[in-house]
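Troubleshooting: if your tokenizer reports a length mismatch, compare against these two reference records.
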Amino acid sequence: MSIALHAFVIGNTTLPSRDCIVFCRYALDLGDPPPAAGSALSVIKGSEHPPGYPLAILAVSQIIGNKTVPQMALSAQVASALAGVLLTIPLYYLTRRLFDRNSAFSATAVSGVLPGFVEVTSDGISDGLFWLTAVTALWFGVLAIERSNRRSATAFGLLAGLMCGLGYLVRPESAVVALSIGLTLLGVVITLARRRRRTKIPNDGIRPRFSAGLALILGWVLVTVPYMVLIGNITNKPSGMGWLKKLLGKEIDPTYFDRQGARPAPQVPLAIWWDDAVNAGESRSVWALKSLWAEYWKASFYVLPAFGVIGLFAVRRRLSDPRFTLLIVFSAIQIFLLWTLAVFIGYVSQRHTILLVLVTCIFTPAGFFALARFAINLWRTPTASRWFGPGLIRVMQNSNPVLLVAIWTAIVMIVALPRNFHSLHEERKGHKLAGLWMKDHVPKENQIVDPFGWAEWYSTRTLKAIPNPVYTPGMADFYVVFTPNANSPHSRLGTYRWAEVLTVPANREIVFRFPEGAPENEIDVAVFKCRPLPVPPLKKK
């Protein structure tokens, strides 16, 4: 079902995310480095993103093709979808190690239809591949914790470290997974050592876990250190560097997370931004906590947290089991990371909380089982015998809890499934249509200024190159893609301000508008033909 659902969402996509364009260009540069870079290693060194996901796109594009915009967009979406589909395997086996086969099936089925999860893993962004490495590492971490054989524990510790390292080549947050597994293994070793001193009885469980911890570090170092040496830093991502600087008490350089402007920051369905005008007087820490909860609540489709809490309460006596402790430690560190990101950067998104949602899915079947047993016990009360006949009471008292869990699982899936049938980024349709229009109507000698990137990408001019419009005396008119009635300052877009200046009423002519025939105050996306004002362009991000 996961394959069919992802295939439908990809086929029903209006256009991929703007980040997809960046990753596709990155992938093409890795396959055919531009002369200025010289080599693929130089491309990696100069990029703001790790190379893991672009390499996956490049691999898929060898099958699908990489000569056109649709081919590259499809390659990016397929690479992400494959990760989303494959993630069901480690999630199933991780849940099965903690509970049983039925719980594992329920957790996997529910997570696989959550709209936030399906949407992100069908889009052209790196999160799905990161989640695959993270859940796989947690599974190997649980296996390392379980093993009393030193060789086996060491092997699974090494595999967990390697997966965390591979995850770091996708997103630097993978360090959280490695830290969680390492702290849990350390906690087990310390606990066993104290028990041995107290009881004076040798405990052979210490060495396997200690060896697993060392192997975890080795696996992570083998993959991440060469990358760090290459880029000369811990990470090149602006958000990661901003977070580290704030954590160390340093000032953050202005980045595309800065949303200050005359208009308020948009509160879009998939993310929340801090805005000094709107949030004046609020505690930033409290705002961050509320925003993090709001995004997690939406990503978990509103109902799963309740079932997860019930499941946690039902297995509360097992939470001291190191396997469960690992998930608690991981969740706590992840929450701290996201909270500090929201405090420092002023931004939190649904997709950032998906790993917490997946942990919730692991405990959700335990909540289903608890409710099933509670429902069966209700039929044994005197109240039930007064209201219902003996035949129905006997049937309900003998009901199989697994059947009721299956019903709960099916209900959640049925409720969540329809939300996946909308088209990805349908609200950005005008940008794609503008690009297709420019493909046929804009002469090659005219430069395009498109702060958003979608339209110029679909015009086929920027499949690989990232143009930087320049002003020269006597040059031809510019064609500017702009959203004249936007409710956001779009300060993260490098040429937005220049486009805004070029499209002043006295300097432009509307040659394309979406929706077609809309009055100017209702235009969503427009292509303006503008005279080249002597204003220096701002470099794109």
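Reference record two:
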Amino acid sequence: MGLTAQKLAPGTALRLRNAVPMIALRESFDGPDESTARAAPPTTPEVPADLVELTSQTFAAKGWLQTALQLEHRPQQEAMAVAVAQAYQSTEPLIFEAGTGVGKSLAYLIPSILLASATKRQCIISTNTIALQEQIMHKDLQLCRDLFGKSKRLDYAKEFHAALLVGKGNYLCQNRLAQAIRNKAELFPNAEQNELVRLTEWAAVSKTGIRHELSPKPISEVWDWVNADSSACSKRTCTPETCFYRRARAKIEASQVLIINHSLLFALLGAGVGQKGDAPGILFPNDFLVLDEAHTIPDIATDYAGEHLSSYSLDRLLKMLYNPRTKRGIFAKAGTADDLHAIDDLIHTADYFFKEIRETKLKSKPIIRLYEPNWVENALDLPITRLLKRAGDIANRVDDDNIREELRDMSKRLNSLKGALATCIEFGNENHVYWIENTGRRHPIVHLRTAPLDVAPFLRQSLFSRKTSAILTSATFSDRAAESHSSEWDGSDSLPQPAPLTTFAKKCGADTVPAVQVASPFDYENNMRVFLATDAPEYSAGTARLDTAWLAETIGWCSKQFHGGTLALFTSYMDLNAVVQILTPEFQALGRPLLAQGTELSRSELIRQFKESGNALLCGTDSFWNGIDVPGPALSQVIITRLPFENPSNPVAEARAEAVQEKGGKPFFEITLPDAVVKFRQGVGRLIRTQEDVGTVTILDSRILRKEYGKRFLSMLPQKRAYRFSRENRDKMFVPMEV
């Protein structure tokens, strides 16, 4: 008997019956070793018979989690943990929406580690943000170890191992570093040769060899020659004793829990890495998967299920072979004068090819959707083919094994770019959307891109048809207020899947996957206050931008009503930059930090400074609507400047809207509005992160009051009472909550 969908009221436990048992290429990571792959996995993955019972006893009132670790009992957390164990017992996928504060991480980690430890199967935990990865690695897994060590029936799992799984291109390969040093005269100018010295010194003290450790970041042109994403870094040439990547690989193979990010997961799946045929498993034999922050996976999977070629990626690869300006590259050591001339010609041909696209197709708009195949002559196909033959000839005659491996790797990448180029020009993928875009100001880069019109088949095949469990969880899947259902569920199939999760499930190809919801345990009625600006300037799709003077003045005034910090969420860089420019002198005079996305600071550094300052204004766009966890008064207010509708001219969104329209549907109500409501929920969810948090949500888009669809947004606010204010009455009406 499988799980059925259910919405649970706050404070209600879920009762279940036991069920019957890169340059050219995206970053890569090796699949299972051949010895592992050769072992025929069982047809039905093994699951211990007592998994649901152990999970239930762990999370129950006065259960082991409460008695051993003195953690509070959360009925919603218990419901989720038992549902996850039930899905594992049935070898079924599961979608579980758990409101903020439920404690999702422990709810899936504990049954996952128990299962992995008992059966020697690997559990893959995939997240969207580095912050959640770090929370899991440094906090949640330690809580699991503490629990298992204090509970006799769980102590078999206390010695579990966990590892972070990142792309090969993030690791330094000391074998390739040694090669680069030996060939530095042919590969690097003098300035870049100094970078080799820095990398050598770092390699002597680093424990992981991951480039993110190194500050400042390594020069990309040098890193290309020393990272592990090459055949020169292999079991034949490298060992765990001498190579950071091989050491990480050995740790991964010995670990029960693997932490990965969504981008790498879908890059691997999109590149065809993983279990094949009827063998159970997603990346490794008999593994099982948890996707946290899973509301993001349709968009991420869309990016990685298509083709992407840029002028920069091709130019960078060609100049690794030979750079006519510096007279360096692998051909400088092993090629003839004719070989060097062939690359020089191809670089100039590619420059002209992309310049023509930029000047003829992208002169008036930075993004153009393509409708007809063969929209440009493929002037690069033949010269790339000829260059590939030259590279093959050199590889066959060269005596140096390392150079041979490097040449063959580059040939594979160049051939992949050649294929992507042909696909983007000839429309080689059925049911894909095709477009070109121009990015960068000082150094323009032309991108040729494709994406599937519908990513559901890819996700259905990659995640839900693998004879293993895939758990998808998030605080924000649903796009409408949940329907009311019975407060208890006995595990029967009598209840239908509720409407709130159908939009997400359909996107993912998970229409038949069981779906469950539990609400947040937080006291939003007493801890959150909501304000709606009634005098926000009118905005319509035809308006180029908001009244940024009004917007800046209102954001500044609202921010100054708090001793703590404010997060202002925008939907466009244009509005953000205009507001920041207006407010910067005022905040400098006040001595309050004003932090903004798009400056020289990274997202993680902006969030770190925001937390530490305690009273900053942080302005962010798309990526700041989710994944930010700042408890306490450092985030006392979230300002939503505009309801987060996606730009309808985005090529993928436009094509999907056309597909809905052709079937007689209404794209705004079937795609645009549901997506905006979910993103709105994510933005609001940045505010209350703990039981003790209090704060204010301020919405500066009057469409939430003027438009009929505004009720959909209002219905998703966890605090159902809202206060209206304007510039005329705000001194009286705007009374924020403070800690």
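Descriptive notes for reference record two:
- Residues 1-26, 34-40, 482-499, 540-544 have pLDDT under 50 and may be disordered.
- The longest strand covers residues 432-439.
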